[in-house]
User: Which sequence fits this backbone?
């Protein structure tokens, strides 16, 4: 097995093992067995279970995001919802995310890493979403990007990870309207009061 194949096998095994038993019961031995490699192969790449988990979880969370630029706030929100629903609805994520969040309350290193990942994603999603909507005149200039992300991620995380309630197209459409209205925009696509009209592009 090639070196890159071994690393990929270890990463896949780690995610499956983490989903199956949680961080507390996770062991290098079990990951090695699931990956079909020796413990030495893992320890050559990562010095500990913690380092292995933090690097792979960070890499998974740091994958390239789609460009949130459909031409309208409504379209961008629908695209963002699709990304979040896909991520939170994945069987592995549904097991791993709640477990790591619980572990973060006990482990400062996990907590710090998760906070960095979440803040980075929040700034990237929120900055793109709100910035373009403000440029188009769909949201007021003082719209808070962090609030926008909270309004998007909060309900979806609750439904998918906590309540385990199926999401319908009607619910997502209603949530789009609710988020736009809460941010000071208009669910009908008209400009919010006081919003500047974007300059025409040549």
Assistant:
């Amino acid at each position: 097995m090639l070196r890159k194949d071994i690393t990929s096998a270890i990463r896949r095994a780690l995610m499956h093992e983490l989903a199956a038993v949680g961080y507390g019961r996770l062991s290098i031995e079990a990951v090695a067995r699931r990956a079909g490699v020796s413990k030495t192969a893992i320890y050559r790449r990562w010095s500990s279970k913690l380092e292995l988990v933090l690097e792979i979880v960070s890499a998974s969370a740091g994958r390239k995001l789609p460009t949130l630029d459909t031409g309208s706030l409504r379209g961008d929100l629908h695209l963002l919802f699709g990304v979040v629903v896909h991520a939170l609805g994945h069987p592995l994520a549904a097991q791993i995310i709640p477990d790591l969040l619980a572990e973060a309350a006990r482990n400062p290193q996990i907590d710090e890493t998760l906070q960095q990942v979440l803040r980075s994603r929040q700034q990237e999603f929120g900055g793109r979403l709100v910035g373009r909507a403000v440029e188009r005149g769909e949201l007021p200039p003082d719209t808070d990007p962090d609030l926008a992300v909270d309004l998007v991620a909060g309900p979806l995380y609750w439904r998918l990870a906590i309540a385990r309630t199926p999401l319908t197209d009607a619910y997502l459409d209603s949530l789009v309207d609710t988020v736009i209205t809460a941010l000071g925009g208009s669910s009908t696509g008209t400009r919010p009061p006081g919003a500047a009209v974007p300059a025409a592009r040549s």
Remarks:
- The chain has two domains: 3-59, 62-182.
- The domain at 62-182 is CATH 1.10.357.10 (Tetracycline Repressor; domain 2).
- The two ends are 55 Å apart (CA to CA).
